[in-house]
Design brief:
Layout (H helix, E strand, L loop, with lengths): L1 E5 L4 E3 L7 E7 L2 E5 L6 E4 L4 E2 L12 E5 L3 E7 H10 L2 H24 L10 H30 L3 E10 L5 E12 L3 E3 L5 H6 L3 H25 L6 E5 L2 H4 L4 H12 L6 E5 L1 H6 L1 H13 L3 E7 L16 E4 L1 H6 L4 H16 L3 E4 L5 H9 L4 E2 L8 E2 H7 L7
Parallel strand pairs: 10-12, 12-13, 13-14, 14-15, 15-16, 16-17
Antiparallel strand pairs: 1-8, 2-7, 3-6, 3-8, 4-5, 4-7, 9-10, 9-17, 9-18, 10-11
The protein binds ligand C2E and calcium ion (CA) (2 copies).
One calcium ion binds next to loops.
Length: about 400
């Protein structure tokens, strides 16, 4: 969006002109001669919009707009509306497309009733095809959203738990809860097949809450078995999507889930990504502090892949950061990644933040992380994610590191 200044008497729009934007009057007033509305002439003032046909793909303008006085206008480009529509809830996007298309058809019909002039653009058919295609995609997304929500209701999701060991002793320190979909027709599906679409459709909110409660239910039994074997306390680490943080009553929802599961929150870690911190820093800081006050530890996941602005780390109540597995994969052969890992570990130590190394598949990687004095390690070398029965078999064991 940008602003333009227009002077008294200046023509802003003409009928039939190709539209690529709409206008909102910020200051001043604009006289409209409308070729399609019942009201043939009217004036729009601050806060009002005109030229709205400009944001219907490939639609011409149907009015003459002239500045009645020197005015300031906000220009709303078509691309920006299209961009925002893509990011919105699919239902909103579908309605928007539908109404714009319907509005265009009605207006065209109405215009031609009283006019001999034809202003239908030859591209209109291709635009309509595009709208229909988007509509088909959106219907597909709806179906998946519904299917995901149904699957939550039908209890089709299961959790696997991947061990996280202490690199300072080799014992099992905790587990990351990772969701799988036990699909009735397609078998056990990894998050690769559904997490992105769950995020896109907001189905991640009910799914994430299911994951949270289900993971919490295992916290006490895991700790009981560990304690019986004389092992240290066990934490369970749960991935929380940025979409869940956007829910207005997130803190109350956590309180409710804690009450439902009666979990000891000091044994629970929440894994968040940098996007949560970047959205709106002041808001994020407030929410994270309230969540920490509930007793959870906070882990910054996939560190190094996002903005990775090391400056802001100290502003947030982060307890641990997870070095992304892409660094683990390259650090033995690539000097730069090795230096980055070294720098992250050094900084985290200075800030009193613990480091979890992800994606450890080889002994040498484990040794390097241990030499860098990183606290925890996770990866296929240690163990793949396990179904819950297998967790009980390894609780209390220690890896020789
Ligand atoms: P993530 O949070 O980075 O989780 C770690 C992923 O790395 C898991 O994949 C795990 O199986 C895999 N992994 C662990 N060790 C190794 C290794 O040594 N090598 C390699 N190549 N991979 C390793 P998974 O279970 O397929 O999950 C993928 C992603 O899906 C997760 O990445 C996380 O972003 C998301 N996800 C999983 N469960 C949940 C959930 O309950 N809620 C949310 N919001 N996201 C989830
Ligand atoms: Ca994670
Ligand atoms: Ca990760």
């Amino acid at each position: 969006m940008h602003r333009i200044e227009v002077t008294k008497g200046q023509r802003i729009l003409s009928v039939g002109e190709e539209g690529q934007c709409a206008y909102i009057v910020e200051q001043g007033s604009v006289r409209i001669e409308d070729a399609v509305s019942v009201l043939k002439e009217y004036t729009v003032g601050p806060g009002e919009m005109f030229g709205e046909y400009g944001v219907i793909p490939d639609s011409p303008h149907y009015c003459v707009a002239t500045a009645e006085e020197d005015s300031l206008l906000l220009v709303v480009p078509l691309e920006e509306i299209e961009e925002k529509a893509k990011l919105s809830d699919p239902m909103v996007s579908l309605f928007l497309n539908f109404f714009m298309d319907r509005c265009h058809s009605l207006t065209e019909r109405h215009y031609h009733e009283g006019s001999t002039e034809k202003i239908t653009s030859p591209n209109r058919r291709s635009v309509r095809d595009k709208v229909n295609k988007n509509r088909d995609e959106l219907v597909e997304i709806f179906k998946t959203k519904e299917e995901l929500e149904r699957a939550v209701d039908q209890n089709e999701f299961v959790l696997h738990f991947q061990p996280i060991i202490s690199l300072r002793g080799g014992f099992t320190a905790g587990f990351e809860a990772l969701v799988r979909w036990d699909h009735p027709d397609r078998g056990l599906l990894s998050p690769f097949h559904f997490i992105d679409i769950a995020e896109q459709t907001n189905a991640i909110v009910p799914l994430g809450e299911w994951v949270f409660e289900e993971a919490c239910r295992h916290v006490a039994p895991f700790n009981k078995i560990a304690a019986e074997g004389g092992s240290p306390e066990i934490f369970v680490s749960i991935n929380i999507s940025a979409k869940q943080f956007a829910v207005p009553d997130i803190v109350d929802r956590f309180k409710k889930m804690i009450a439902n599961t009666n979990v000891n929150t000091s044994h629970v870690q929440l894994e968040i990504t940098e996007s949560v911190l970047m959205e709106d820093t002041t808001h994020a800081k407030g929410i994270l502090h309230q969540i920490k006050d509930l007793g959870f530890q906070l882990v910054l996941d996939d560190f190094g892949t996002g903005y990775s602005s090391l400056n802001y780390l100290h502003q947030f109540p982060i307890d641990k950061l997870k070095i992304d597995r892409s660094f683990t994969h390259t650090m033995l052969n690539d000097e730069d990644s090795c230096e980055i890992v070294r720098a992250i570990a050094g900084l985290a130590h200075n800030l009193n933040i613990e480091v979890v190394a992800e994606g450890i598949e080889e002994r040498e990687q484990l040794s390097l992380y241990r030499d860098l004095d990183c606290h925890y390690g996770q990866g296929f070398l240690i163990s793949k994610p396990l179904p819950v029965e297998k967790v009980y078999e390894i609780l209390g064991t220690r890896m020789a590191i």
